[in-house]
Design a protein that fits this description.
Helix content is 40%, strand content 24%. Helix 1 packs across helix 6 and helix 5 runs antiparallel to helix 6. The chain is built from 10 helices and 15 strands. 28% of the residues are buried.
Length: 339
């Protein structure tokens, strides 16, 4: 959920946060990345894209010609993402790690105060805007929302030497973000009612999906077992983030009357990418490829992924929007139904 808001912030900032800076026609960006997920870091924003090559030891250094503007940019390694703030004239250095990505961030050099602020802000957001938060009843949600945005406001006061123009924008953005989060909550709540209509009814069928083991698999092949269905795609960052949690969940329920079925809803052209990801991430459970079929997800009213569905041994839906594997409630629900 926070990643969706992260992209929303970047779009807004790209429109309103650009200003001329005549100190230099480039910025320096360097650092060291421990345990990287890729050979590159990618910087995007304000019509600018740059791939930054990592050395074998994770060290990198590059010169960025930022079209003489100061703005927010999305820094990503393909799995982890962070919004940073750069302008020509900056000489920014960062230490980071793919393990505890946000907590590992440490900026130094010209422009570091602003980016250390943004990193701590992102950490508050990641810890706060989780699935459990969006499952609170409205009164509890509103109370917690106030607490979270008090933290944002206090953080801005503590970092009183950040870029002056950014500080003004941040005060406005905190108010806008608060409204956006509430709107996301109300939207998610409205969808919950639609999903409830599916519960107790027969799960829509899928037929002859491509199985990673080389066979063809249909929903009816799992009759007699509980099914925890994971709808995902190779391009979906939140989906990939759930993979290690799903593997742990599968291991904990090994030997029980339940099967874990992951269904890729990628396009047909992503078949090789799907197989490669299963191999590189050592994904377990039953891995299926929908091969471009959309009927199954349309019948389940899927409008975003990852999406998880629990089906009983007779093929009826128990939970049409089950919590993610990373949510402790998932284990509680499965333990309850398997008693």
């Amino acid at each position: 959920m926070y990643k969706k808001l992260l992209l929303l912030f970047l779009i807004v900032f790209t429109i309103v946060s650009c200003k001329k800076d005549n100190t230099s026609n480039y910025a320096k960006f360097s650092g060291k990345y421990l345990y990287p997920n890729s050979e590159y870091l990618t910087l995007k924003g304000n019509g600018y894209t740059k791939k930054i090559k990592l050395n074998k030891d994770g060290v990198f250094s590059d010169t960025l010609h930022l079209q003489n503007t100061a703005s927010h940019y999305l820094l990503t390694d393909g799995d982890n993402e962070l919004i940073i703030y750069l302008k020509n004239g900056d000489d920014l250095d960062v230490k980071l790690s793919s393990i505890n990505f946000l907590k590992s961030l440490e900026f130094s050099g010209l422009g570091s105060e602003t980016n250390n602020y943004l990193a701590k802000k992102a950490m508050i957001g990641k810890e706060s805007f989780n699935n459990t938060f969006f499952e609170l009843d409205e009164e509890q949600f509103d109370t917690e929302l106030e607490n979270i945005f008090s933290k944002f406001s206090q953080l801005l006061k503590e970092f009183n030497n950040i870029d002056t123009d950014l500080a003004v924008l941040e005060k406005k953005e905190i108010l806008s973000l608060k409204k956006a989060v509430k709107q996301q909550y109300l939207f998610k709540k409205s969808l919950g009612g639609k999903y409830k209509e599916l519960e107790g009814k027969a799960c829509p069928n899928f037929d002859h999906y491509i199985n990673y083991n080389g066979s063809r698999t249909s929903l009816n092949d799992f009759r007699g077992k509980y099914i925890y269905i994971d709808l995902w795609a190779t391009w979906c960052t939140p989906c990939r983030a759930e993979i290690p949690h799903l593997k742990r969940l599968e291991n904990e329920f090994k030997g029980e009357n339940i099967i874990f079925v992951s269904i890729s809803i990628d396009k047909k052209s992503a078949y090789k990418a799907w197989k490669t990801m299963i191999e590189t991430k050592n994904m377990s459970g039953t891995q299926l490829f929908s091969n471009g079929d959309k009927q199954f997800i349309q019948n389940l009213k899927v409008n975003s992924i990852p999406r998880f569905v629990i089906v009983d041994p007779k093929g009826n839906i128990i939970n049409a929007e089950a919590p993610r594997p990373s949510n402790p409630k998932t284990k509680e629900i499965l333990n309850k139904i398997l008693k």
